[in-house]
Amino acid sequence: MKKWKTLFFMSLILLLSFNVFAAISDTVRGARIAIEELLSKPDSGAFLQLVEQAEGLVIFPTFYKLGFVVGGQYGEGIVLRKDPESGEWYGPAFVNIYGLSWGAQAGVQSASLVLVVMNEEGINGFMGNNFTLGGSVGVSAGPLGRQLSADVDYKLKASIYSYSVSKGFYAGVSVAGAYIRTNDNANEAFYRQPLTPEQILKEKKVDGEAEQLIKLIEKAISDSKLKDKQEL
How far is CA 231 from CA 46, 114, 120, 174, 227, in A? Predict the structure, then answer.
């Protein structure tokens, strides 16, 4: 009887572990789908030009905003870092986003949220356990259009630019004041060992679904440049 109990609990633990891994794998897959939808828009060129200059991406496949007078925000997502020297991408590191808001609001909204991290100061925030967007790290709504304005240095204007994608529409969105926290359980389940966000974002090169996401973006950047040349 004792042996059967042991086998039962071992099977239960394995099943729960599989479910956790499947859930976090869905987060990475959802991040790729969110990027696909954003890139499908005709005026995503400015986004691509930002990513080409960026040092990281943070993607929340589903970002919830809900409330009545007092509102809340929540999402589970991934962080990817690009080495500025080699151009190699690292991650994903898993994070959660939280926030509170006040004012005239009601109901529930859901969207994908994409943060383009432009510099080392911005990406360093995601290597710690938690930090607040818009504190020491500037956050602005991302620019739209086929190209960035030639007279604006976006790498210096803000550390992070934000985009949202919702029901076929996307636009810049402000998330200043939102709170980012490391999802240690997801990181450990995904990598099968306890790792800090800094270890992941400096040592674990993208592979699998995350690598497909990066290849998708790099191809879009290449195609956009080719199209611009052909139109000259």
Answer: 17, 29, 34, 33, 6
pLDDT of residue 94: 96
CB 45 within 8 A of CB 81: no
The pLDDT of 101-127, averaged and rounded, is: 77
| 3-state secondary structure (DSSP) of residue 168 | coil
For residue 113, count CB atoms less than 10 angstroms from its CB and return exposed for 0-12, middle for 13-18, buried for 19 or more.
Answer: buried
Assess whether pLDDT exceeds 50 at residue 51: yes
Number of domains observed in the structure of the chain: 1
- pTM for the complete prediction? 0.82
- pLDDT tens sequence across 184-205: 999 998 999 999 999 999 999 9
**Domain, as residue range, for 140:** 2-231
Phi-psi region of 182 (alpha: psi -120 to 50; beta: other; left: phi over 0): beta
Q: Using CA atoms, how far apart are residues 191 and 198, in angstroms rounded to an integer?
A: 14
Cβ atoms of 180 and 97 closer than 8 Å? yes
Using CB atoms within 10 Å of the CB of residue 159, give its burial: 0 to 12 exposed, 13 to 18 middle, 19+ buried: buried
Nearest alpha-carbon partner for 61 in 117, 123, 111, 133: 111
Judge whether 130 and 182 are in contact, CB under 8 Å.
yes
pLDDT above 70: percentage of residues in the chain: 72
